[in-house]
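C-alpha cells in:
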C-alpha cells in the first residue's frame, strides 16, 4: 500500500485537529482575569453587581475559544448549524454561535500531492511492471469536498491507483517506456473525470518510475544492442558505397590525365617517407612508369616559357639530364 493512504487519513483539511487560536486564547485569559478580579472586589466591597459581572466575564472567557475562529489565507471553514450546512467561512476572523454552530471541516485549498503506485501490474502484452506516479490536485469547491465524500485524500489515492492499473493494462510496454507524456495525460484526464464531482480538480499527473523484471531488461538490452549493430553495418555499407563512387570518379580523371596519376604516385611515396625517413625499394618497372625524366623536361619547358634564363651550360646540362635514363636503385646486400 502506498504511503499516501496513511498520510491522507485525518490530515489537515479533512477535519483534523488544529493548532491553538492565539487571539481567542488571549481574550479568554483576559475575560477570566477580569471576572476573577470582579468577584474578589465584590466579595470585599459586598457589592452583588460585581459578582454578576464577574460570573458573566468568566462565562465569556470560557465561550470565547468556541466563538472566535480564524481561518488562514488558504483555508475555508465549513460551518454547520444544528447539523445543516450554514455557510463556508474564511479566510480571516469569523464568529459562530457556540453549541449551535460547529465547524465540521477545515479545507486546504493549496495544491497538494498524493503518491500512488501499481505493483506487478500486467501491461497489454502481459509484461508485469511496477509503476510509481504522483498526482497534483487542488480543491476548488470546499462545500462539495466536505459534504460529498468522507475522506477525499484516501479516495484520491485509491482512484489514482485504480486508474493507473487500468492505463497499464490497456497499454503496451514499449508505449509506457517511450511516451510517458501520453501516459501522464491519460491519467490526468481519467482521474480528473472521476473526482470532479467532489469539487476537486487534477492539476497534473507525473509517472516517476517504471520498473520491469531483470530478465526482460537483459532481453531488451540485447535487442537494443542488435539494432545498433545492424544500424552500424548499414552505415558502414553506405560509407563503402560512397568511397567506391569517389574511386570511380578518380579513376576516370586519372584515365584522362596520365600525368596526374604519376604525380599522385610520387606524392604517395613522398607522404610515406617524409615522417620517419624510411627507405622504400621501388621496382624498376614502376620507376619507368613514373617517367621522372619526362616530368622534369615538362617542368623545364614550363620555366623557359615563363622567361627564365638558365645559367651558362645549365640548359645543355638540363637537357642531357632530361634525356638520360634515370639511375636504377641498387639493392643493398643483406647484413
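Residues out:
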Amino acid at each position: 500500500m502506498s504511503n499516501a493512504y496513511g498520510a491522507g487519513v485525518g490530515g489537515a483539511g479533512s477535519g483534523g485537529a488544529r493548532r491553538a487560536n492565539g487571539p481567542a486564547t488571549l481574550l479568554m485569559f483576559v475575560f477570566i482575569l477580569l471576572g476573577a478580579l470582579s468577584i474578589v472586589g465584590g466579595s470585599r466591597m459586598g457589592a452583588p453587581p460585581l459578582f454578576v459581572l464577574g460570573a458573566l466575564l468568566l462565562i465569556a472567557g470560557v465561550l470565547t475559544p468556541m466563538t472566535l475562529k480564524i481561518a488562514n489565507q488558504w483555508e475555508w471553514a465549513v460551518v454547520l448549524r444544528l447539523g445543516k450546512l450554514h455557510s463556508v467561512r474564511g479566510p480571516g476572523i469569523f464568529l459562530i454561535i457556540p453549541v449551535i454552530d460547529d465547524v465540521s471541516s477545515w479545507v486546504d485549498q493549496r495544491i497538494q500531492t498524493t503518491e500512488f503506485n501499481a505493483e506487478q501490474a500486467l501491461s497489454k502484452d502481459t509484461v508485469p511492471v511496477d509503476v510509481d506516479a504522483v498526482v497534483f490536485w487542488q480543491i476548488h469547491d470546499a462545500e462539495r469536498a466536505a459534504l460529498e465524500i468522507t475522506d477525499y485524500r484516501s479516495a484520491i489515492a485509491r482512484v489514482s491507483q485504480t486508474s493507473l492499473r487500468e492505463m497499464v493494462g490497456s497499454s503496451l510496454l514499449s508505449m509506457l517506456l517511450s511516451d510517458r507524456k501520453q501516459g501522464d495525460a491519460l491519467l490526468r484526464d481519467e482521474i480528473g473525470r472521476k473526482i470532479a464531482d467532489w469539487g476537486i480538480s487534477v492539476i497534473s499527473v507525473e509517472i516517476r518510475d517504471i520498473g520491469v523484471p531483470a530478465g526482460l531488461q537483459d532481453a531488451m538490452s540485447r535487442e537494443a544492442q542488435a539494432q545498433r549493430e545492424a544500424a552500424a553495418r548499414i552505415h558502414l555499407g553506405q560509407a563503402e558505397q560512397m568511397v567506391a563512387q569517389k574511386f570511380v570518379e578518380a579513376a576516370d580523371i586519372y584515365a584522362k590525365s596520365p600525368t596526374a596519376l604519376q604525380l599522385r604516385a610520387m606524392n604517395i611515396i613522398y607522404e610515406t617517407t617524409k615522417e620517419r625517413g624510411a627507405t622504400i625499394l621501388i621496382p624498376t618497372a614502376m620507376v619507368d612508369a613514373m617517367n621522372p625524366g619526362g616530368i622534369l623536361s615538362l617542368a623545364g619547358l614550363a620555366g623557359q616559357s615563363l622567361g627564365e634564363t638558365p645559367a651558362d651550360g645549365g640548359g645543355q646540362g638540363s637537357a642531357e639530364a632530361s634525356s638520360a635514363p634515370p639511375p636504377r636503385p641498387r639493392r643493398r646486400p643483406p647484413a
